[in-house]
Write a structure and sequence with these properties.
Strand content: 5-15%
Order of helices and strands: EHEHEEEHEHHHEH
Number of domains: 1
Largest sheet: 5 strands, parallel
Distance between the termini: 23 Å
Helix content: 25-40%
CATH architecture: 3-Layer(aba) Sandwich
């Protein structure tokens, strides 16, 4: 029996992702978790969900790992591809369906980043508790978009392409002060996070780190392999590049 590659993330990871901006484009190509699993000769369990924030990513992995119907001995590697800090995940209905807000109405950049870092550390502790192999990575930016101004949702851009250039301003506090608070918060986790198992740590360019899909990343060529000028999700080639990038850093 093959070992399991267990992955969770947002739309960059979701195997069933469909472009809201270009709904007629066939996006059924293999995503990076499936491509990576093939390289590792593993079975892929992909829990990625478009729009997901870090609470969903952490909780989906927690639920899978602690489900008594699942034998953890079959899990060969776990990878959370972390998302943006400002997203708010929650469950609703009798089936506990996950959904989200793009911007949490409560808190500020510091509290959102601090919350995400707690998920990262808790995930690490969980894996080490169960003696599971893991590698963490920040797939898209954790907080930069918050300060520079978030783009509108893809559904809104589909209805009005001019909104691609619009930005939703940060109104929760002083950008300069709050950005410094965020960087200090990340540094406070330096001695808590197992940096050998976190690609790109400390996940901020000012601190010498990076998130994977960025021009500051060693994977900057990914920026040339997007769906379109309006939709910056990786295309088929982009997904292959992500899989190869992660594979080369697994050791």
């Amino acid at each position: 029996m093959k070992k399991i590659l267990l992955v969770s993330g947002d739309s960059y990871t979701d195997k069933n992702w469909i472009s809201e901006i270009h709904p007629n484009i066939d996006t059924s190509w293999s995503k990076w978790p499936e491509l990576l699993a093939k390289k590792l000769d593993m079975e892929c369990i992909n829990l990625g969900k478009s729009g997901a924030g870090n609470e969903y990513i952490y909780t989906s992995l927690l639920d899978y790992i602690t489900d008594k119907k699942t034998s953890i001995e079959n899990i060969g590697l776990i990878i959370p591809a972390w998302s943006q800090c400002q997203r708010k995940d929650y469950q609703e209905g009798i089936f506990g369906r996950w959904t989200n807000f793009r911007i949490d109405p409560h808190g500020d950049a510091y509290s959102w980043v601090n919350r995400s870092l707690k998920y990262y550390l808790s995930f690490q502790i969980m894996c080490e508790r169960y003696n599971l192999k893991y590698m963490q990575l920040q797939m898209i930016d954790l907080f930069y978009g918050v300060f520079s101004g978030l783009t509108h949702g893809h559904g809104d851009i589909y209805k009005d392409p001019s909104k691609k250039s619009d930005r939703i301003p940060y109104t929760k506090g002083d950008i300069v002060i709050d950005k410094q608070r965020v960087l200090s918060c990340i540094l406070n986790y330096e001695n808590k996070i197992n940096v050998k198992n976190f690609i790109g740590w400390p996940i901020a360019t000012e601190l010498g780190g990076y998130y994977v899909c960025s021009e500051q990343s060693p994977l900057k060529e990914i920026m040339n392999h997007k769906i379109s000028k309006l939709d910056d999700h990786p295309n088929a080639k982009g997904q292959e590049i992500i899989a190869e990038f992660i594979y080369d850093r697994l050791g």
